[in-house]
Amino acid sequence: MIRLRFPWQLARDGILGINRRNSRYISRYNPRHLFPLVDNKLKTKIIAQQAGINTPSLIGTIAHQYDVRRIGELVADYNGFAIKPAKGSGGKGILVITDKDTQRFYKSSGAAVSPDDIQRHVSNILSGLYSLGGSPDTVIIEELIHFDPSFAHFTVEGVPDIRVIVCRGYPVMAMMRLSTHASDGKANLHQGAVGVGLDIATGKALNAVQNGEVITHHPDTGQLLSELVVPNWSDLLVIAASCYDVTQLGYLGIDIVLDRYKGPMLLELNARPGLGIQVANGAGLRPRLTKIDNLTAAELALGPEERSALSRTWFGA
Predict the structure, then answer these.
(1) Block means of pLDDT (10 residues each) for the chain, length 317 residues?
(2) Which of 202, 253, 218 has its CA nearest to residue 25?
(3) SS3 for 250-304, per residue?
């Protein structure tokens, strides 16, 4: 783990700070009027599907409190599903159900959830409890993701995801987030998930952290984290690079999952991605972003396949 105390040390190690991220990249490359495309997961899903990018299948939506009772009929034919706030962030408000019987639903941890609990959760989402700014929200119900079995020993109770930072259409840094008992099955670093830095060239693990501390094994399964390799890596990077073409946002955090049946799937986009990915990688973003700042017009005009291939050459370990 990189332990830094002074500004000159941050600069020396190429660490991107929040002020520079905001002024140099978010303000510069992300037009404000385009933010709704990524701040609303339903809008993100629609534009991604229109562009041919694979996303989890939509079961339905609920937009009004008087429709809360419809949740039962919407999920009646599904043993597993995910309920999400359209305007949520940081994994807040996401409820994942993996099984059910005639009386109850069950989370991946085995915890039981009653139909009344689910209705209450849907009502809370609609009221804006989990949305950005507390504004009224829309409920999204999606089919359950069946995560790739190659990650079976690297995560518990939930689906791991891959965060890729993309600048001007070029993937510059990536990490995988692995759920733990502490994170309640959610791939959220702030809640105790494990962050594994990934080599942009190969998708292989470089470094791993939990709660800011370097670790070598998954805290619950004991799996050696250095053995992690993300399959379909080149396809995944092309999807990440394509998100720039779809949104025209020049600085993005792209969250992707690997489904065992459907391959890489876009989960969501973030126009203000966090900086913890640098800790997970044990490296700073600034040198890579400086490279992107200085791209030629010809390099910026390339398609997502060519851009992702160049990123693997430029930023590989």
Answers:
(1) 53 87 96 93 94 94 95 93 90 89 88 94 95 90 89 88 97 96 83 94 96 93 96 95 97 95 93 94 96 97 98 94
(2) 253
(3) CEEEEEEEEECCCEEEEEEEECCCCCCHHHHHCCCCHHHHHHHHCCCHHHHCCCH
